[in-house]
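Researcher: Please predict.
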Amino acid sequence: MKSVIQWFQRNNSASSVGELILVTRRYKWLTLYLLITCSILTGTSYLILIHPVFLPSDLANPAVANFIASDLFQELTRPAFLKLDEYNKRKAGDNIERPPLKLFAVDPSQRGVTVILHYKLVPQDAAYIDDKTSDLSATPRYKYVSEISVRPTLSALILFLSTQLCWAIGIVFLFLGRKHPAQINFEERAE
């Protein structure tokens, strides 16, 4: 930290107005490079944060795997799957309520990414036949078919875009900013 302070003190000791203008121009270019670098680093960091969005939306996606392994997912889906299992094991004539037709499981806990699992109840291809009463018609069996969606979180996207907008405004003002009147007068006299 001491060396940084010494560097600024050393470079601020301009002996003439011309040297002061040159130092100011150097700082202006340094500021421009730093703004562009910060913008690129912010964009890169955001893309790294939301990288599961660019992967296939299946069980191999790390965001989906984390959600399925979480306790929240078990709490949301266990009752419906237990009810489905009970419904599929029923015998002809049992009065068991059908499981929910649709089931949503949303995980907002991961940073920058929202995982949505949408389960739809569909009939299975093979019906369960009761061995004891084979003369009765087969009882239909059901299963859940999942649709997985991995999206960027809206709040993180808005934060990223507003940060990038601030960097862009800083760069524009740096280029379009007016020169100080003393600098304009000095440059006109030097010509």
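Model: Residues 16-49+156-190 form one domain.
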